[in-house]
Amino acid sequence: MKLDTTKKILIVGLGLIGGSYARALTDKGYYVTAITGRQSTIDYALSASMIAKGAANPDPALIAEADLIVFALYPGVFLDWIRDYQQHFKPGAVITDVTGVKGCIVEPIQSMLRSDVEFIASHPMAGREVSGVENSDPAIFRGANYVVTPSEKNTQDAIELCCDLGRVLGFARISTLSPEEHDEIIGFVSQLTHCIAVCLMTCEHHERLQDYTGDSFRDLTRIARLNDEMWSELFLRNKDALLHQMSLFEEELARLRERLEKGDREGLREMMRASTARRALFDKKTD
Amino acid sequence: MKLDTTKKILIVGLGLIGGSYARALTDKGYYVTAITGRQSTIDYALSASMIAKGAANPDPALIAEADLIVFALYPGVFLDWIRDYQQHFKPGAVITDVTGVKGCIVEPIQSMLRSDVEFIASHPMAGREVSGVENSDPAIFRGANYVVTPSEKNTQDAIELCCDLGRVLGFARISTLSPEEHDEIIGFVSQLTHCIAVCLMTCEHHERLQDYTGDSFRDLTRIARLNDEMWSELFLRNKDALLHQMSLFEEELARLRERLEKGDREGLREMMRASTARRALFDKKTD
C-alpha cells in the first residue's frame, strides 16, 4: 500500500496526539475520519475541519472504510479495542499506533490480529505538558523523532508505509528499532526523565521555592506536570526496563557524589567535560 | 546612596553576566566602566557601546571613581581581588557581586573589607548555556529572580540599593535570603539540577541516542553543557548543602522506585498528582 491521498485514514482516540495527526493529515489533503469516546470531541474536530467524519462509538461503517488506522489510545484500552472490534477492519488494512511502550503491545496485538490485517507499531516522540484535542498542533512534530518498531512478523511494505506516514506528518528523523530496543531507550530518555522531574517536585518542601528558581529548574521540571493515568500505565508496562535505567542513573549520581565528597575537582571536571561534549549531539534539528 | 544616573558603576569581570549587566545599565543611561582580564573583551565592549571606559588590568583610577562596583568573577578570583586591590576603592563605595554561592563569600569578604566600604551580596538567577561577553544579553533577566543575601553587617541603605539594582536590570522578582538559606536553596534548584543533567549525559552510552530523544530529554539536559571550571568550583564551595540536597532527591527516587517495583499504581499516581499540582506554581512570570 502506498500512502497517497486516495487512502482513507481513521484516527482512533482524538486527544493531543491523535488530534495532531488528524490536523496534519487533513492539511495535507488526506481523507481523515475519527472515532473517540466523547461526542463533544467529535463536534470540536468537525467544527475545526480536522476530520471529514467522526463517531463517538466504534462505528462499523467508519472502521470498514479505512485503509490505514492510527490508534492513539492508552495501551490497555488499545489491546481491548483490537480484541473487541477487529472483525470490522477492511481486508488488507494496515494499522499503526502512537503508544509509548512497545514490548507489551506489539507481540499481543500481532498474535491476536486477523491474518489479513497488518499491525506496524510506531512511536511519534513528541508531546506537550497539556492534553486534549483543543491543544493538538502538528507543529509539535517539527524537528522531532519518529520511531517505527517492526517485529519479524512485519512486511517491508508496511514498514515503508509507516515511515512515509512519519514523513507526511513532518517529523525530522525517521528510524527503526526493535520493540525491545525501543523500550530500553524510552525507559531512559522519556520515562527516567519523568521520574526525575516528579521527584524534583516532591522531594523538597521549602515554601515559596518558586521565588528562587532559575531557568534550569524550570526546564528540568516542565514535564513534572503530567497525566498520572497515562504515565503510571506506561511506567508499569515498561517496569523492568525503567528499573534498569533508574539503576544506571543512580549509580552515576553516586559516582558524582563520591567525587564531590572527596573534593576531587579534576574528577568532577572530567564528568562535566564528558557531559558537555556529549550534549552537543542532542540539539534539535529543525527543518 | 541612591541608584540614580549620576552614579558611576564599575563591572569587574566582563563575561556573560557581567556583560549583560553592562548592556542593561548603559541602556538605562548609567555611566558604566569595566575591568576584565583580556584587552580583546574591553575592545569588544567599547565597540558595542556597552561601556564608557575599560581596562584589562585593575586600573586604580577606574576603581577609585566608581560609586558602585559589581563583581562578576569566580568565587576564588573574587576573594583574591578584594584582598589585593581594595585599597583603591572610593570611600563610601558599595560593592556587590553575582556569585552563585554565598556562605563562602559573604563572611570572608565582609571580614577583610575596609570599614568605609560596604559589601552587599546578590545573586541574579539567570544564565545561558553559553558564556562570554559576545553572548551577553539583558533579556536573560526578564522574568527571572534576583536574590539579595544580606548579613547582619549590612545596612538597610545598601540592601535597598542592591534591590534597586535588580529592578533597574529588569528582574521580575526581587527577594532577600540569608546567605545560608540561599546556599541551601541554590544547592537544590541550581546545583542538584546540574548534577542530574550531567549524570543523564554520562550514564548511558547507547550509540545514536540522539535519534530517539524527545523534547523532555532535551529540556532536562540543556544545562548538561556547562563550564566545568566554574561549576566544579561552585559545587565544592557549597559541598555540604549540595550533598544534603542530593540525599533528599535520592531518597525520593527510591520512594518512586519502591512503588514501581511493587506495582503500586495508586502510589505512583499520587506522586504524579502532587508533582503536577506543585509544578503549576513555577511557571515563569514574564513582564
Number of helices of chain A: 11
What would you say the CATH architecture of the largest domain in chain A is?
3-Layer(aba) Sandwich
- The number of distinct β-strands of chain A equals 9
Dominant shape of chain A: elongated
- What is the structural class of chain A? alpha/beta
**CATH fold name of the largest domain in chain A:** Rossmann fold
Mean residue pLDDT of chain A: 94
**Oligomerization state:** homodimer
Written account of the structure:
Two copies of one chain form a homodimer. Chain A folds into two domains: 8-177, Rossmann fold (3-Layer(aba) Sandwich), CATH 3.40.50.720; 182-282, 6-phosphogluconate dehydrogenase C-terminal fold (Orthogonal Bundle). Chain A is 49% helix and 12% strand. Chain A has eleven helices and nine strands. In chain A, the strands form two sheets. Chain A has a six-stranded parallel sheet with strand order 3-2-1-4-5-6. Chain A has a three-stranded mixed sheet with strand order 7-8-9, with helices on one face. The mean pLDDT of chain A is 94. Chains A and B meet through helix 7, helix 8, helix 9, helix 10 and helix 11 of A and helix 7, helix 8, helix 9, helix 10 and helix 11 of B.
